[in-house]
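Ligand-bound model needed. zinc ion.
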Amino acid sequence: MFPKIELHRHLEGTFDIDTLYDISIKNGLDTPREKQKFKEYCQFPKDHESDFLLFLAKFHTNWYRSLDDVYKVVYNSVKKIVNEGIHYIELRFSPEHFSLENNFDRLEITKIVINAADAAAKSSGLKIKYILTFNRGKQTSSEMLKLYRTMLDLNIDSIVGVDLAGDETNFPPELFSKFFDAVNEIGVHKIDIHAGEVTDSSQIWTAIDKLHADRIGHGVSTIYDEKLQLELIDRNIYLCQCVISNFQTAAWSDTPSHPIARLFRKNVPVSISSDDPTIQNANLVDDYLTIVKNFDFSFQELVKINFNTIDASFLSADQKSSMKLDYSKALDFFIQKNS
Ligand SMILES: [Zn+2]
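Prediction:
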């Protein structure tokens, strides 16, 4: 399969549905017992029109009843990622999501998620790093900072970034500037901000100027702001765009006019990601197929985007160089197999 680099995917939206089904039976949850109905309960229906509320309704946090449940779901979910041809991934997760229902210790949960994901990645040959997600609607800036400071004590090298996600409309980025000032000052992690997904480009400006964003999640409203496009080019700040997710959430429901191709052809840094593949009922391969079908991307352009995506990653300069060599080998192998 064509090797891919992916930088914007939430573990909360990447769960293995069979494992979740088993766990929900074991824990006696009030979920459909018939497998097909259970899938419909968890996933956005295929061929359904854009529907933001329906999309959000698919994020449940009450699956887990024990730390072992969390380990099992994460292990089995990460194990399958390699089936999408993913060579390297920066997988993000919210310790809050896995802890909320049972008030599990956030540090314990972080360690369990990373141990499970590392073990799965190792056994499947996937290269993986992690991003910690903080949710706008669930914590204040000072609560985020308090939790973040305790997480630093874990000293986990494979955590490379911090992400701000959640409700853009009611919780604008400036509310969190103190937290990201501190993250920037501490200097251990890079910064990735969801911005301009369902809001105008002013939130992207705030993210890059006030929240020290090294990367932007979605950023579709960039297409309306030429000055911002030039700024992103100048500062080499990437937009990780997710075409299928944007359709389902109605962030950009007219896929044939999605900005990704226009931005790429204007040299605005863009990268292809899936966001929440299990919930979307469509994985990263489907995103690539959608993009090729709608925008006529050539093979060379897809290769270029993936090399660019390595540049956009939160790896160190040395790690990027070796990742590029390694990716070239995977690409050569793919070309040989398909020629
Ligand atoms: Zn996202």
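Residues 4-338 form a domain with the TIM Barrel fold (CATH 3.20.20.140).
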